[in-house]
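Deviations from the work plan: none for this task. Representative record:
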Amino acid sequence: GAVVSQHPSWVICKSGTSVKIECRSLDFQATTMFWYRQFPKQSLMLMATSNEGSKATYEQGVEKDKFLINHASLTLSTLTVTSAHPEDSSFYICSARGRGNDDEQFFGPGTRLTVL
Amino acid sequence: DQQVKQNSPSLSVQEGRISILNCDYTNSMFDYFLWYKKYPAEGPTFLISISSIKDKNEDGRFTVFLNKSAKHLSLHIVPSQPGDSAVYFCAAFWSFGNEKLTFGTGTRLTIIP
């Protein structure tokens, strides 16, 4: 199947700093990328959907100015957590869907963010 | 409002036996359903899917059954293997809507050797 990578896999940062997480589709062009957040013992919650070259669509309750998403190319989307706080500590997962691939999303391995 | 529900948070099954994971949904607009498997500290991996025009889809040891009238789907794993121990999420979306995946809360499957 298609491969989606995330970098970094694990990041620890101080409160108040910004962290950028990259999501790359390695062997296909991802016209749509999704960013999810998983809390302990809870399902994945969709944060935003981004289409290449356009602004991301955020889910209700997700702060656009705090979670900046950029989908500048067909193989790369970035999530920047600005002014991170301890409550932002979580597991962030991206997924990607290619053109014409309507029935499947390929998930990245996730990024564990810990804010001290 | 949890539109996709997995009422069993955990399940233990003897190796070699059948594992049955259940999922219920409330939104009748959903027309495509997927199962994902997730190991700790990893992203989910796609297992199997089913369209609402079918009631069964089989792929190797994995079979998904869909009962539209009951708004219920199940994943059968036969025979269960130790490597199947993971958290399983069912997910659903509406293909004519925004195609956003709505996930259940997951069921932790433990295969006992």
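Chain A has a mean pLDDT of 86.
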